């Protein structure tokens, strides 16, 4: 059986100009002025294999490259070098959501995001009520998203992401904003996904949940894979290094 | 060498593309007029207002009204031109406007400009109803040549989409393109026979003007709607029926070039928005 996700020597570099030049005038006025680019190696030569049915946790400090790695897996970014192979339908939940339009109602946003995630018209009409019910937002279905709290938006985004017939689910900080009852609902869905043999990759700062749900954990430090393996062990390394950097 | 495979099999079907474009375009059509009291009425009022003003200035003051069917030809020209400017201008900024979506989901990026041009096509449909009312009010009898109108509208859709694809991808790299395109549109508007009959164009300019698919589409559509000697089409200008192939070739280059540029740039859209 092929692994769910293969990441083979993948690097992603963002060139951030110190002086941003995006207008022709700037190019013409200062044609000889050298633009200094800061090469930010967000992901640096990472090799990882995630097996089917595995719950895989990714931890690391802010800005260490965790979200960039998820975006590379999701196909949102292309790697500068290396190869990413994903075997199975993927549902991404990145940076607290699936990308809502604040000016549209919850109903329109659910239809748009569901369609972009691959739900057909029939599937959407069958699952629409379930999405709203899971998010507990039935009463607000015709309100614009801009009137929703961040917790409500997160609930809606998660409800859509899990209604796709995915085999691989990418979760970026889903437990960060939800209230206690929603977090418990999320945990119930995790248990269900495990029995269904789904693959889940999740990024979180909630180390308790990472330890509880992950089969393996990767620690990312400045874009590089620092440690990979048993959850308690990797979390231990992360905590000791974080403590060392403070003192 | 970078390579990428993702679970994108679900986007294999044309059916899902059509579904996504329909959902996104209808939401945007609603969004465009949300919070406005008259809603869709505005999409008719705007070109009609422009038409009224141009008719008074050019038809009355400059006496162009004596040309056969001047008002209907003017209105049709303005409606088709408005569609082209709306589609290209909205498509240009469409990727940037959807940066939250693009940075969080992978989906075929072509859906974004495609849904823009679908939305503006709905508006075009409403505006063409206004043209139809004019035609009926002038008691113009249905002609066989009306059968040419659907393929001409399809050509207009394709050309506008091609330009929109190119501009949307370029806009992420060079924001100046917004100003440049506004100027180009203004120049094209006055260099094309939209407000004045095609006979006003200098002889040397005609073969150049008719390279533009927009000029060809507008003149062909006028002729198809009401055949009249005052309308010159590409075969008239180039002196051979094959002349029609010149602007059609340009149209083909526009959609092929626009799409391949868009496709080549699309892997980096997420980091540029």
Please describe what this structure looks like:
The complex is a heterodimer of chains A (247) and B (273). Chain A is α/β, with parallel strands linked by helices. Chain A has 2 domains: 5-88 and 167-246, P-loop containing nucleotide triphosphate hydrolases (Rossmann fold, 3-Layer(aba) Sandwich); 97-164, Helicase, Ruva Protein, domain 3 (Orthogonal Bundle), CATH 1.10.8. Chain A has 8 helices and 9 strands. In chain A, a hairpin with a 2-residue loop joins strand 8 (216-221) and strand 9. In chain A, helix 3 crosses helix 4 (121-135) and helix 3 (106-116) runs parallel beside helix 5. Chain A is globular. The model of chain A has no long low-confidence stretch (mean pLDDT 90). By secondary structure, chain B is mainly α. Chain B has one domain (18-272). Helices cover 67% and strands 1% of the residues of chain B. Chain B has helices spanning 14-32, 41-61, 70-92, 94-97, 99-102, 111-137, 149-171, 177-191, 206-209, 213-225, 234-238, 245-265, 269-272; one strand at residues 3-5. The longest helix of chain B has 27 residues, at 111-137. At the A-B interface, strand 4 and helix 3 of A face strand 1, helix 1 and helix 5 of B.
Name some characteristics of this structure.
heterodimer, A: 247 residues, Rossmann fold, 3-stranded antiparallel beta sheet, 8 helices, B: 273 residues, mainly alpha, 13 helices, 67% helix, 1% strand, disordered N terminus
Q: Please write the string of helix (H) and strand (E) elements of chain A.
A: EHEEHEEHHHEHEHEEH
The CATH homologous superfamily of the largest domain in chain A corresponds to P-loop containing nucleotide triphosphate hydrolases
The overall pLDDT average of chain B reads 91
Oligomer: heterodimer
Instruction: Quote the beta fraction of chain B.
Output: under 5%
Determine the fraction of residues in helical runs of chain B and give it as a percent range. Answer: 55-70%
CATH architecture of the largest domain in chain A: 3-Layer(aba) Sandwich
User: What coarse outline of chain B follows from CA principal-axis ratios?
Assistant: globular
Q: What is the CA-CA span between the terminal residues of chain A?
A: 46 Å
* Share of helix of chain A, binned: 25-40%
């Amino acid at each position: 059986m092929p692994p769910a996700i293969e990441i083979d020597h993948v690097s992603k570099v963002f060139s951030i100009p110190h002086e941003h030049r995006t207008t022709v005038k700037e190019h013409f006025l200062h044609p000889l002025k050298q633009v200094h680019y800061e090469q930010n190696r967000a992901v640096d030569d990472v090799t990882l294999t995630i097996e089917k049915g595995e719950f895989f946790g990714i931890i690391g400090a802010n800005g260490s490259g965790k979200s960039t790695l998820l975006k590379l897996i999701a196909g949102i970014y292309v790697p500068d070098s290396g190869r990413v192979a994903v075997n199975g339908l993927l549902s991404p939940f990145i940076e607290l959501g699936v990308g809502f339009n604040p000016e549209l109602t919850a109903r329109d946003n659910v239809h748009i995001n569901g369609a972009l995630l691959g739900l057909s018209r029939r599937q959407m009409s069958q699952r629409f009520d379930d999405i709203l019910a899971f998010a507990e937002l039935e009463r607000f279905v015709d309100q614009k998203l801009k009137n929703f709290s961040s917790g409500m938006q997160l609930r809606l985004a998660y409800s859509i992401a899990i209604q796709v017939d995915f085999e691989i689910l990418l979760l970026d900080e889903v437990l960060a904003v939800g209230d206690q009852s929603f977090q418990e609902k999320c945990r119930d869905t995790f248990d269900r996904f495990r029995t269904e043999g789904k693959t889940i990759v999740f990024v979180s700062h909630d180390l308790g949940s990472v330890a509880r749900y992950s089969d393996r954990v990767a620690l990312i430090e400045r874009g590089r894979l620092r440690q990979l393996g048993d959850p308690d062990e990797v979390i231990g390394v992360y905590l000791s290094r974080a403590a060392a950097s403070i003192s | 060498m970078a390579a990428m495979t993702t679970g994108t099999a679900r986007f294999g079907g044309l059916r899902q593309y059509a579904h996504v474009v329909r959902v996104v375009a209808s939401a945007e059509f609603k969004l465009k007029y949300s919070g406005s009291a008259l809603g869709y009425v505005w999409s008719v009022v705007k070109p009609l207002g422009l038409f009224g003003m141009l008719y008074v200035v050019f038809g009355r003051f400059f006496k162009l009204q004596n040309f056969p069917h001047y008002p209907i030809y003017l209105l049709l020209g303005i409606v088709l031109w408005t569609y082209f400017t709306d589609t290209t201008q909205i498509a240009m900024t469409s990727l940037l406007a959807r940066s939250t979506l693009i940075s969080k989901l992978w989906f075929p990026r072509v859906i974004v400009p495609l849904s823009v041009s679908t939305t503006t096509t709905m508006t075009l449909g409403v505006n063409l109803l206004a043209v139809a009312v004019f035609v009926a009010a002038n008691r113009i009898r249905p002609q066989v040549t009306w059968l040419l109108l659907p393929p001409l509208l399809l050509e207009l859709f394709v050309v506008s989409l091609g330009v929109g694809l190119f501009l949307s991808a370029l806009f992420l790299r060079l924001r100046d393109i917004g100003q440049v395109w506004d100027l180009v549109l203004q120049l094209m508007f006055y260099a094309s026979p939209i407000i004045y009959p095609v006979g006003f164009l200098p002889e040397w300019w005609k073969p150049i003007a008719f390279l533009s698919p927009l000029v060809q589409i507008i003149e062909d559509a006028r002729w198809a709607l009401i055949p009249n000697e005052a309308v010159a089409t590409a075969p008239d200008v180039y002196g051979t029926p094959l002349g029609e192939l010149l602007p059609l070739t340009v149209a083909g280059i526009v959609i092929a070039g626009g799409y391949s540029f868009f496709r080549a740039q699309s892997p980096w859209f997420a980091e540029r928005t």
